[in-house]
Amino acid sequence: MSLRQIIEQEIGEHGPIPFSRYMELCLYHPELGFYSRNAEQFGKAGDFYTSSDVNAVFGRLLARQFDEIWRVLGSPDQIEILELGPGRGLFAQDVLDWSEKKFPPFFHALHYSLAERSPKLRDRLRGVLTRFLESGTASSVSEGANEGLQVRKPWFSDPSGGAATRRPARETANSFYSPAEKTRATSVGPNNAMDERALAPEVPIIVFANEFFDALPVEILSAQGALRIAAEGGRFVDIWVPPSGEELEFLDRYGVHPEPGERVEVPLLAHRYMARLAASMRKGMIIVVDYGYTRPEQLAGRHRGTLMAYRQHSAAANPYTAPGEQDLTAHVNFTALSSAAEENGMRAQPLLTQSQFLMGIGEANQFADAFEECRLPQERAKVTLQLKHLVTPAGMGESFHVLVAAKDVDPEQVANLSGLSFVKSRL
């Protein structure tokens, strides 16, 4: 049975589904979802590539920043890095290789945890990171996770009943679902990875999320209401229902209400996920790298309706054409993520561009991490072009942003991290 047929069957049995449910199945169905089908959609030959696909320098620069954070935390005997959605493991490999070579005290204290739900991608991780996994320096925190569909409890539900996310008392943990919809919501995506970390909760932790939040399912609202998807005549069609109080409150606080003819995303899941990460962290930092926006930018008329489908690096106009065969993403609402972190005991730094963040880290040694292994002029020229792609506006430098938040860490020392030396307030 194809994924389209699975979705049509669910609609036939239970009625129209929220867009978040459709996006969830398209991306995270355990066999047919985009991130579950195979590992070949990553990289330049696939459907998309991330900063870690460009050059090892991205991981090397972050290794330098992680070592600095470890020292700011007091150089503890143990520290955990938890990477959310590590994909093929290239970033983890670069961080571990460079830390072992350049920052041995930090490396000996480090345990690198990989929160990856896709069985096929976990297989790829085992091949890429064999040496570190076998030595115990790294581990997959999702190895024992249930990979099947679990009825009744959404994978993005809050087991605390809402306290951790500080939702209004009148809202339930999944208020945007009707009772019928709640019975079929599933756990095909990531749980709260902090529940599965490898080391004890008192061990300081760095949570790293590179292009993770943009792939979490979103709700979609228009002036007509909240989007539901029905199936008619072998195709998916839009219908609209009254929005929930939670959706409207989210837009009041963190976004904008749609104008006639306009659609906007409501990333409730991303907000809840960040809130749970922050609430469950005792000491450490969260670093989010993604493309996104702030509420003031939306109020100024930008980033209003950012949902996109991608296939082989080309944008697709219709998210319904190839369920499970194309990537679905929505830009990240950094105002909401920052607020979720701060409402749960963290201190968020002003938002940076990826260019500012990487330039700050690399400035002290003039990006020696990038060029150290270059022996020939043409090798140096190639790395220069790759580095420019990471930091210039024409590449990823200005379209990607970095959010850094810390808990139980001296605020002055956090503000003095090299990666924050080019801070530009956007929140």
Could you please describe the fold and organization of this structure?
52% of the residues are buried. Strand 11 and strand 12 form a beta hairpin. Helix 5 packs across helix 6 (90-102) and helix 12 packs parallel to helix 14 (334-342). The protein is an alpha/beta fold and 427 residues long. The longest helix has 16 residues, at 57-72. Helix content is 37%, strand content 19%. The N and C termini lie far apart (46 Å). Strands 2, 3, 4, 5, 10, 14, 15, 16 and 17 form a 9-stranded mixed sheet that branches. Strands 1, 6, 7, 8 and 9 form a 5-stranded antiparallel sheet that branches. It has one domain: Rossmann fold (3-Layer(aba) Sandwich), CATH 3.40.50.12710.
Summarize the structure.
With 427 residues, the chain is an alpha/beta fold. The protein has a single domain (3-419), classed as Rossmann fold (3-Layer(aba) Sandwich). The protein contains 18 helices and 17 strands.
Strand content: 15-25%
- Look at the structure and give the CATH class: Alpha Beta
Shape: globular
Helix content: 25-40%
Please tell me the overall pLDDT. Answer: 83
Supply the key terms.
single chain, 427 residues, alpha/beta, Rossmann fold, 18 helices, globular
Blueprint of the fold:
Blueprint: H1 3-14, E1 17-18, H2 19-28, H3 34-37, H4 51-54, H5 57-72, E2 79-84, H6 90-102, H7 104-109, E3 110-115, H8 119-128, H9 130-135, E4 138-140, H10 179-182, E5 205-210, E6 219-222, E7 225-232, E8 235-241, H11 245-254, E9 263-266, H12 268-280, E10 284-293, H13 295-299, E11 308-311, E12 314-316, E13 327-329, E14 332-333, H14 334-342, E15 347-348, E16 352-353, H15 354-363, H16 368-371, H17 377-391, E17 400-407, H18 411-415
Parallel strand pairs: 2-3, 2-5, 3-4, 5-10, 10-14
Antiparallel strand pairs: 1-7, 6-7, 6-9, 7-8, 10-17, 11-12, 11-13, 15-17, 16-17
Helix pairs in contact: 5-6, 12-14
